[in-house]
Design goal:
The complex is a heterodimer of chains A (582) and B (195). Chain A is of the alpha/beta class and 582 residues long. Chain A has 11 helices and 21 strands. Chain B is mostly helical and 195 residues long. Chain B is built from 9 helices and 2 strands, in the order βαβαααααααα. Chain B has a two-stranded antiparallel ribbon with strand order 1-2. Chain B starts with a strand and ends in a 6-residue tail after the last helix. Classes of the chains: A alpha/beta (582), B mainly alpha (195). At the A-B interface, α5, α8 and α9 of A face α2, α4, α7, α8 and α9 of B.
């Protein structure tokens, strides 16, 4: 093994190429700053590498998930477990950690749901009496949201809602047939359902000739060959490379951030998976955007005499306040759709309809809230992936409904009658996904496991995460809402209601893949690792731009906010450079 | 990298030639990780079911999904080859499938003195009727019900994710176009014009 030290001193080295790292690289490159980006996985260009438009039968496992966690066509390399790179649990925690190792990270496969956080969300303690207020307000980030919308392309409808701010929108896609049944039922229950908001180019993006408008295949999770949806790889990193100012080193796994005796960052040490040698690169500034948990891990592993507790951790808050969205919901077969008409209903691969949080918490037994994501339609029949093949439930449901001849029959069966049932049930499913807010808590955290290293010799993370009664009560409410909608639209629920023994169907923490908060922003250096610009309180030339910086999440999916915050932090960094402060 | 034939992928392989049913078919490996390509190759080269098991699977799959006016049967859609692959890809199916097939043969041997495939069509139907209806099946047939549930699921997945099955279901997508919403006549059919 060799230690290879580069003599080049970059202006900036960026760890990570997802939403936070990609935006930082894009802003720096366009400002003429020489930056190096380290990415732990391989190069990925959706134009070349996407599995878009493949048919199920072009996969030997028909889209199954034996090699890719979310299905054979899903864009994400990595998954819930990565060979040789474990993570551990403490006190019976079951935190699930999804890692994508590739250029663009998880933005290649995300659902492109692009929601702004609202004014009350930045004032969580003041508005809801739980958690903490952010050190910034909606008004301070609003112009960055606007510029992100214009840069990446976001569709939606203008609604004028107080805590669900409108953006600069492209036209939203029309709803699918099944989704209209959900909307009608929800409306009858007093739940306002509006157009979804997604980072998909439903129309050409003014001034952008690198990307083409969406052609409606509904496969955003595979990533888009024509860049019709937003990925950090296609829309930020690859354009940044083209400026000549950004260098990307792939298969480079960050070990730690290096510091001098004064505690200032001097560069990064990493392992190259290509030759398994150890490298050190020097930089005047370090931007950390390795993903919420990975960034905490790198900081905690960056111990030195100046930072004995880990870098940027004088507050002792790094790794703490880990929080992920709550997830619940339900799905049903709509008998009125049996034998429904066929047409191309692929639409977009993001949300067609959703319901922003609509209730007043004063009358409820939990703080904050959740939004509803509506789904349903005639997907490509495939095995695994986000949506399994609904045909698998046909031999159970065909005993509950009359057959094509109007007569009841025993459930199950085989032969011509069963074959006909598969046809009749196709495209009749509709459902509601509920995604809510969890409160950031000091006692939900990740830390370095003192006894375990990964295959590179890097100490791994150990998780401690428990839901509280706030999240469990919210999950019960999610289930009541979903069941009420299913009942109102005359659907047959695909599962019995979950009881208290399973937290009313509340998913395990981490399953939302919206984890944030481990390197939070806060004005008080004794309580938070970062100031309100995403700059480390105790290391002025270190900035963090991924989801870890969140003081407190909301029920809005985090990616759009990560993009806006990263743009803001990187522009602040550029201003500080000009003033010779860093 | 673009497309390569399975044959050329296997060329460098030092082990005996793979018994690939579809050797020569092209596999698009763009965007596939090295370990995925290697794993698919390895699974395709391995064999799990023996000839008798495969014949039984084929016969049952065709009884589950027979030919009709609209499409062919399970074998026409390549279902037996899919089941052979998927049990190697997801080994959780191996024991229930192997043991279930054996359970079925023993049942038939005790009843009719023959393996399932050597039974008459009437005997096969009588046997399947005992295990194909979970809510009606007798308690002593429960192991057969569990086997048949899995067999039916795998057959249906294999069939309806094939080209023939997708066309049979009438899925119209996976082709570039412009989504303009649900056609007006369909909205009217369901009374959803104003929603």
């Amino acid at each position: 093994m060799q230690l290879i030290q580069s003599s080049t001193v970059y202006d900036v080295v960026i760890i990570g190429s997802g939403a936070g790292g990609g935006m930082a690289g894009y802003v720096l490159a366009n400002a003429g700053i020489q930056a190096l980006m380290l990415e732990a996985g391989p190069f990925f260009d959706p134009a070349r590498d996407s599995q878009q438009l493949k048919w199920s039968y072009q996969s030997p496992r028909r889209g199954g998930n034996a090699t890719r966690a979310l299905g054979d066509f899903d864009a994400a390399y990595g998954g819930w477990q990565i060979d040789g790179e474990p993570y551990t649990q403490k006190e019976g925690s079951e935190f699930q950690w999804f890692r994508a190792r590739m250029l663009g990270g998880r933005t290649n496969h995300w659902a492109r749901i692009a929601l702004r956080m609202g004014p009350k969300d930045f004032k969580c303690r003041t508005s809801y009496g739980v958690g903490d207020d952010w050190p910034i307000t909606y008004d301070e980030i609003r112009s960055y949201y606007d510029r992100v919308d214009k840069l990446i392309g976001v569709y939606g409808s203008m609604e004028g809602l107080e805590n669900d701010p409108d953006g600069i929108f492209l036209p939203p896609p029309k709803p699918r047939l099944n989704e209209l049944f959900v909307k009608k039922a929800a409306k009858g229950l007093g739940i306002p359902v509006i157009a979804g908001r997604g980072a998909v180019m439903t129309a050409p993006l003014p001034g952008n000739t690198d990307r083409q408008a969406c052609f409606f295949c509904g496969q955003c999770n595979r990533s888009c060959k024509i860049y019709g949806d937003f990925s950090s790889s296609s829309c930020l990193v690859i354009p940044a490379i083209k400026t000549g100012n950004l260098t990307v080193r792939t298969n480079a796994v960050a070990r730690e951030i290096l510091t001098d005796t004064n505690g200032q960052a001097t560069g990064v040490s990493y392992i190259s998976k290509d030759d398994m040698q150890e490298y050190q690169v020097k930089a005047k500034v370090v931007i950390l955007a390795a993903s919420t948990c990975e960034s905490a891990r790198i900081l905690l592993n960056s111990r030195s005499s100046a930072h004995p507790n880990g870098l940027a951790n004088a507050s002792n808050a790094v790794g703490k306040y880990l929080h992920d969205s709550t997830q619940g919901g339900g799905a049903a077969i709509l008998p009125q759709l049996l034998g429904r008409p066929r047409f191309n209903e692929d639409g977009v691969g993001s949300l067609h309809l959703y319901a922003p949080w609509w209730l007043d918490n004063k009358k409820l037994d939990f703080p904050r809230g959740y939004h509803l994501e509506v789904f349903g339609g005639m997907w490509m029949p495939g095995y695994g992936g986000y949506f399994g093949f609904e045909g698998q439930i046909v031999p159970y449901l065909n005993g509950y409904l009359p057959g094509a001849d109007g007569k009841p029959k025993a459930g199950g069966g085989y032969g011509l009658s069963l074959k006909e049932d598969y046809r009749r049930f196709y495209g009749t499913m509709a459902g509601i996904g509920c995604h809510g807010t969890a409160t950031a808590r000091e006692d939900n955290y990740c830390e370095i496991d003192p006894g375990v290293v990964d295959k590179f010799g890097i100490p791994v993370l150990r998780f401690r995460y428990k839901w509280t009664s706030d999240e469990i009560n919210q999950a019960r409410h999610m289930q009541e809402t979903s069941m009420a909608i299913v009942k109102t639209m005359g659907g047959i629920s695909l599962g019995p209601p979950a009881g208290p023994e399973t937290n009313y169907g509340l998913d395990k923490p981490g399953k939302g893949i919206h984890e944030v908060g481990t390197v939070r922003m806060g004005d008080d250096a004794k309580k938070a690792p970062l100031n309100k610009w995403g700059q480390a309180h105790d290391c002025k030339n270190l900035f963090v731009t991924d989801g870890s910086v969140f003081t407190q999440q909301s029920e809005k999916n985090p990616t759009l906010t990560i993009l806006a915050l990263s743009m803001r932090t990187t522009e602040y960094l550029i201003r500080q450079r000009k003033q010779y402060n860093i | 990298m673009g497309t390569l034939s399975v044959g050329s992928l296997l060329e460098g392989c030092q082990s005996k030639p793979a018994p690939l049913a579809d050797a020569g078919a092209t596999v698009d490996i763009a965007g596939r990780q090295d370990f995925e390509i290697a794993r698919d190759k390895e699974l395709a080269a391995a064999t799990f079911f023996d000839a008798h098991e495969r014949a039984t699977i084929t016969l049952i799959a065709d009884l589950i999904l027979p030919r009709d006016a609209k499409s062919g049967n399970a074998s026409d859609a390549g279902v037996p080859a899919f089941i052979e692959f998927i049990v190697k890809d997801e080994p959780v199916h191996q024991l229930p499938m192997r043991g279930g097939l054996r359970w079925l043969d023993i049942q038939c041997l005790n009843r009719y003195g023959k393996d399932f495939i050597d039974c008459t069509p009437a005997q096969r139907t009588a046997m399947l009727d005992d295990i194909a209806y979970p809510m009606k099946a007798k308690p002593e047939m429960q192991q057969g019900v569990v086997f048949f549930n899995k067999m039916r699921d795998l057959a249906a997945i294999g069939f309806f994710t094939s080209k023939m099955g997708i066309e049979d279901l009438g899925y119209k997508g996976n082709s570039p176009g412009k989504w303009e919403g649900v056609p007006l006549e369909v909205l009217k059919q369901y009374g959803l014009e104003g929603v």
